[in-house]
Amino acid sequence: MNSPTAAPDLHRKPASRLTWFTFSSPVNFYRLAGILAPLCFVAAAIFGVAGLYMGFFVAPTDATQGEVYRIIFIHVPAAWLSMVMYVALAGWSALGWFLNARMAFIFARAIAPTGALFTLLALWTGSLWGRPTWGTWWVWDARLTSELILLFLYLGYMALVAAIDDVRRADKAGALLAIVGVVNVPVIYFSVIWWNTLHQGATLTMGAAPKMAATMLWAMLLLTLACWAYAFAVSFVRARAIVLEREGSSAWARAAIGDARDS
Amino acid sequence: MGARRHRRRPGLLNMHWHDANEFFSMGGHGGFVWGAYGVAALLMAIEPLLAWRRHRGARRAIAEQLADEAIARAGARP
In this structure, how many other beta carbons lie within 10 angstroms of the beta carbon of residue A55? Predict the structure, then answer.
């Protein structure tokens, strides 16, 4: 009857077919991210201008906090992104660790500085909001302290991978730190419930009606979209740089740079 | 400061603010509000520049390598 050895050629997938693993190849990712990064920067600018307009010219003055509450339009998105990006950093680290996927480690390294930036911004804007509203720049409450630890985790990850010369060992050491540190993210998120903190509860909760004016909500959501788009854009640019740094001797990278130089 | 006056000219940019001074003073908390947004804007302008510079550096390193190899090939020719 049919020989089992005759079948494979007919069922072999063509090499150009798009699969989940297409962009785990550096050359495909490099090209795709080169297209997506500028689009994300444009989206960030559009959402940013729209959000700032809503936040400064449409949203009303807060009845109890006055004008200084407008800081939350940037504070809340920065705090969200600081946590989301850490989960992404830990997720790519875990994928890299268990599947030994080289692009996963590159994504992890590309995400970390932007996550650290958003953590710093969350702390900075929160402090500037806290001084006039709470009467203090800083207080060692659970929310603020765990967010500060998040900043140290980001900085620790970046310092650790930079300190180890061997790229693969650095990737793995950093991945381990990132994965262990992810325990801090639920601590930050639930700190306002678990402990009696000075920091107020969640601004928005899934399944509950927002407790703020619709225009305020829109300002915050638009700036959140702007921060997401910005985070993708700058991570793509950094990931492309890391791909070239690591794949510089490969034929495709040499061809890509050579073509660009000749034309 | 005093009590807020009624808005006189409702429009695109003065739904809350009567003039630029009122806008920049942010109810007396201008330093806090603009300090927060200013630093955010500054850092979010610098970070992409650093990322682009890193990408450009990586491209240059490969281009220099290609150029060196081309010189070496030309020198090896009789």
Answer: 22
